[in-house]
Amino acid sequence: QVELVESGGGLVQAGGSLRLSCVASGRTYTLYGAGWFRLAPGKEREYVASIAWKGINPDYADSVKGRFTISRDIAKNTVDLQMNNLKPDDTATYFCAARKTSRQYDVWGQGTQVTVSS
User: Fold this and answer.
1) Is 25 exposed, middle or buried (CB count within 10 Å of its CB: 0-12, 13-18, 19+)?
2) Which end of the chain is more exposed for a tag (fewer CB within 10 A), N or C?
3) Banded model confidence at residue 13, pLDDT cuts 50, 70, 90
4) Exposed e or buried b for every residue in 31-67, given b needs 16+ CB within 10 A?
5) 52: nearest Cα among 100, 8, 117
6) Residue 52: its pLDDT value, please?
7) Which residues pair with 80 in a beta bridge?
8) How would you classify the pairing of strands 46-52 and 59-60?
């Protein structure tokens, strides 16, 4: 089993920055990759970014490209999301997810709230 716990959310003004962290525990050696998703009120869940568990091949949604950076800290077993130049449209609950294959995400964290004020 793998467990994910997110942290780092909060309230920030537009143009500001936040760093989200997702700590993975359990049988993490079985993982293929991890990613971040977000869910805003009245909207569908949106893919944000992903990275291979080895820490390579980062990928981003067009809406965050150039502003967000996903990374892996292998020593700490975390998946981090650095968010810069935040916009009110980035307001959402952010979820960390992990997958054992390339097909689907199997494990989800509980989410952390990010609120960006204008």
Assistant:
1) exposed
2) N
3) very high
4) bebbbbbbeeeeeeeebbbbbebeeeeeebeeebeee
5) 100
6) 97
7) 21, 71
8) antiparallel
